[in-house]
Amino acid sequence: MPNNIVVVGAGVSGLTCAMLLARDKANTVTIVAKHMPGDYDIEYASPFAGANVLPMSERDGSRWERRTWPELKRICEELPEAGIHFQKAIAYRRERDLDPAHNALPMDPLFLHDPWYQELLPNFRELNTDEVPAGYDSGCTFDSLCINVTTYLQWLLGQCLKNGVVVKRGIISHIKEAKNLSHTGLPADMVINTTGLGSLKLGGVEDKTMAPYRGQTVLVRNECTPMYVTSGTDDEPADLFYLMQRAGGGGTILGGTYDKNNWESVPDPNVANRIMERVVKLCPQIADGKGVSGLSVIRHAVGLRPYREGGVRIERETLDGVEVIHNYGHAGWGYQGSYGAAERVIELVNEVRVAKGEDLSGQARLFVWDDGSNPAYNL
């Protein structure tokens, strides 16, 4: 009998886990979620992401991003309908932003000198002095990609349906309720918790180390490449600078903020003005030199990054007789770590299967590019 699995949550983490689990026909998968692709709600983080690949982990915690990059790269090359395109990235550093004593935001390893990810992302190089704008001390460039989240979430959902996943709208107050929500009518063998910030209040989880990191952005029609990001700004402590153009006519995202414990869902016009002013100052070409008035705004948006003190939680526990596998707390790197995190979830699912007596010796490779040696785990 197939393993009966319920995935709670339909953001990028839940959809990726469900899709990969369902490719193994030994699993029967149901997604249960309050919000689905196409919804816009402050509780649902995935539609508000940029999203891109700008590594955020330190070397010792880089497995998730290392294992995700090859799959996103493959999708970008082979499946244009998924809404991903390659984009060169430029990161500018200010030395003072790298000093925790002078930076109110968590340290971002993206801006470290001699970073680990130069081994992973193509065409990494340090910028020459004449390539670094006034106000910055150094920078680097590398090949990356940008995801049109509107297209990609729908593509993930389509891949789930293609592989037999049944998707249900539902609200649960306790994680153990998911055991009885399989479309088969039978109790689930395993429940995958991908509720993100919802894990703060979800019964049976109630993870008090979770906190929102509010991100405000502006989506514009203007086109601008490459992708830009800086280590800090001269504005408010929670202000950031990033700019990325989405694939398939998805517009260009201007950001942003990283504001801890701010639950406000309404965009702040003062924050929006600061975002746009920073963009046209550093990249005047986006508005043809016309300043903020040259930006054609599609919408202002706010999302809440599901931050977890101590990092992402990907682990098993038995809760009231239910095998639960958690995958939440990705903060701002949910997309760029999605396949690596889902891979670990599947390893944990397979631990349960082996404990039940299943023989997995003939199991197919999870990723078509992987020879099974997993050389990029984290080392």
Q: What's the gist of this structure?
A:
The protein is α/β, with parallel strands linked by helices and 379 residues long.
Give an account of the 3D structure.
The protein has a domain at 3-47 and 150-208 and 310-377: Rossmann fold (3-Layer(aba) Sandwich), CATH 3.40.50. Helix 1 (12-23) runs parallel beside helix 3 and helix 1 packs across helix 5 (338-355). The model is unreliable at 375-379 (pLDDT under 50). Helix content is 20%, strand content 26%. It is an alpha/beta fold and 379 residues long.
Secondary structure layout plus pairing:
Layout: E1 3-8, H1 12-23, E2 27-33, H2 63-78, E3 84-93, E4 125-126, E5 138-147, H3 149-162, E6 166-169, E7 190-193, E8 210-220, E9 227-230, E10 239-245, E11 252-257, E12 259-260, H4 269-282, E13 297-308, E14 313-319, E15 322-328, H5 338-355
Parallel strand pairs: 1-2, 1-7, 2-6, 3-9, 7-15
Antiparallel strand pairs: 3-5, 4-5, 8-11, 8-12, 8-13, 9-10, 10-11, 14-15
Binding site for D-dopa: 305, 332
InterPro entries: D-amino_acid_oxidase_CS, DAO, FAD-dep_OxRdtase
Family: Belongs to the DAMOX/DASOX family.
**CATH superfamily name of the domain at 3-47 and 150-208 and 310-377?**
NAD(P)-binding Rossmann-like Domain
How many strand units? 15
Order of helices and strands: EHEHEEEHEEEEEEEHEEEH
What's the story with the biggest beta sheet?
Answer: 9 strands, mixed
